């Protein structure tokens, strides 16, 4: 519920900035939302909104948006890649947001408790993801590690970074250019569920992979649409 409220609030702020809130957010497709957010928020404001909402992944997507018809063009490309990932990476939760894709892995799928070495089973999921990233080279990828609140802040921060780095290293070893990859560790600072329950803590232990258009795709989108 908390996550849903954050997303609704974030979209409302961005859409209001271009005066389209009155059209009704529910009537827009994800591609149209991406176009509106990019046109209204821009990179800097989008990043600030994401940070204020406590959602680094969503902030990265909003911050990288170009908006308008070019944003809609990018959104269609992302629709296709998201469908591909859903088909080939069954261990992931794949969500289309604005002009980007959010791929989420529960840490239990990738890592043993308190470890940052990838499980053998995780390698199949990530290898399939790497194939999709190779098939769609005009994107940049942000890998964000998260933990629950068990343990100290400093330890959780370090663990989240090490887990994100492990995913980056594996993708690089599977022919995804390191120049496309960046990492961020958020420790326990961005929970998506209640840390007072075992189920909530399990949800908070996760790795999020954000896929957004690189400059080449943005330039292509602008050329194709005349924006």
UniProtKB/TrEMBL annotation:
<dbReference type="Pfam" id="PF00691">
    <property type="entry name" value="OmpA"/>
</dbReference>
<keyword id="KW-0472">Membrane</keyword>
<protein>
    <submittedName>
        <fullName>OmpA family protein</fullName>
    </submittedName>
</protein>
<feature type="signal peptide">
    <location>
        <begin position="1"/>
        <end position="22"/>
    </location>
</feature>
<feature type="region of interest" description="Disordered">
    <location>
        <begin position="179"/>
        <end position="204"/>
    </location>
</feature>
<dbReference type="InterPro" id="IPR006665">
    <property type="entry name" value="OmpA-like"/>
</dbReference>
<dbReference type="InterPro" id="IPR006664">
    <property type="entry name" value="OMP_bac"/>
</dbReference>
<dbReference type="Pfam" id="PF13488">
    <property type="entry name" value="Gly-zipper_Omp"/>
</dbReference>
<keyword id="KW-0998">Cell outer membrane</keyword>
<dbReference type="GO" id="GO:0009279">
    <property type="term" value="C:cell outer membrane"/>
</dbReference>
<dbReference type="InterPro" id="IPR050330">
    <property type="entry name" value="Bact_OuterMem_StrucFunc"/>
</dbReference>
<dbReference type="InterPro" id="IPR039567">
    <property type="entry name" value="Gly-zipper"/>
</dbReference>
<feature type="domain" description="OmpA-like">
    <location>
        <begin position="98"/>
        <end position="215"/>
    </location>
</feature>
<keyword id="KW-0732">Signal</keyword>
<dbReference type="InterPro" id="IPR036737">
    <property type="entry name" value="OmpA-like_sf"/>
</dbReference>
């Amino acid at each position: 519920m908390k996550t849903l409220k954050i997303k609704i609030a974030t979209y409302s702020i961005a859409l209001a900035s271009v005066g389209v809130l009155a059209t009704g957010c529910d009537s827009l497709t994800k591609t149209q939302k991406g176009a509106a957010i990019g046109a209204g928020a821009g990179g800097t404001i989008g990043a600030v909104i994401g940070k204020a909402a406590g959602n680094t992944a969503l902030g990265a997507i909003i911050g990288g948006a170009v908006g308008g018809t070019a944003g809609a063009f990018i959104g269609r490309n992302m629709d296709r890649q998201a469908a591909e990932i859903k088909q080939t990476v069954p261990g992931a939760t794949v969500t289309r947001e604005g002009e980007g894709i959010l791929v989420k892995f529960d840490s239990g799928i990738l890592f043993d408790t308190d470890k940052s070495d990838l499980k053998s089973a995780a390698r199949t999921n990530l290898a399939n993801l790497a194939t999709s990233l190779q098939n769609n080279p005009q994107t940049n990828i942000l890998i964000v590690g998260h933990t629950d609140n068990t343990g100290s802040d400093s330890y959780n921060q370090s663990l989240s970074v090490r887990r994100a780095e492990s995913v980056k290293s594996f993708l690089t070893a599977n022919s995804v250019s390191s120049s496309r990859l960046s990492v961020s560790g958020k420790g326990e600072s961005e929970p998506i569920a209640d840390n007072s329950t075992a189920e909530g803590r399990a949800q908070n232990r996760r790795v999020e992979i954000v896929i957004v258009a690189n400059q080449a795709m943005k330039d292509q989108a602008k050329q194709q649409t005349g924006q």
